[in-house]
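[Meeting: bench + compute handoff]

Bench side (C.D.) handed over the final construct sequence. Compute side (W.E.) agreed to return the predicted structure before the next meeting so the bench team could plan truncations. Sequence as handed over:
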Amino acid sequence: MYHSPPYPLLYEDLVRRALLEDLGPAGDITAEACVSTRARARAVLRSRKAGVVAGLEPSLLAFRLLDPTLAVRIEAPDGTAVEPGGVLAVVEGAARPILSAERTALNLLGRLCGIATQTAALVRAIEGTGAAIVCTRKTTPGLRALEKYAVRVGGGQNHRFGLDDAVLIKDNHLVAAGGLRAAVQRARARAGHMVKIEVEVDTLEQLAELLTLPVDAVLLDNMAPDTLREAVAMVGGRMITEASGGITPESVRAVAETGVTLISLGWLTHSVRNFDIGLDFEPV
């Protein structure tokens, strides 16, 4: 399936800053010392494990920013399932800029492929339950748009992108606002008609009170599967149910089988395992 990447405007500055961080004020002194300006190269990006490709266009931008004349060819578009040794892309042209951009490109690509790969594994684990895997705002600063894109590539869905696109009332909001009813009433009075309101609850008693209030979704926090199943029955389809907290690859299926609508996982983005990708020069 083709996945349209975010607009370059959303990530070009990020890639540019990553290159500047790596190059420093003196540039790539190793490549400049060892490699002639006339040297040409053909670099092949290969997967070293099985997984799902994500973030190729943003990652390959690192090469184009250093040398717009480089020929960049994508062999495995985002969303492709690859095996060890699978070719993701090929970059051809002057050797120096390829060497200088290599680490920046692989750092970004490895992270985004890692997110897509572990998302896809979770989606497979809950297949047939009707639940969806969603990410959270626990993203790497500056990388949110790309990390959430990688979740979509892996078959997951996105929770809110920031503080400004939905209301999510959590435990500390309830304390500061003076209770559940007061918090929901203030949020409903403030939110526009296009803004959804979700409330986090820890107990079935809180849920019972919430069901008397005008909200769109409930976040069922750190509940065991038996409690989640009871909570879903109490809601009876009147609002979206979201399970969150302490959910692992081993427990995700049991959570999904309780009937919840969504399963949100912060570690999907904040504790991603880097996807191993190699870049190797071949004779030109």
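W.E. noted at the follow-up: The radius of gyration is 23 Å. C.D. will use this when planning the next construct.
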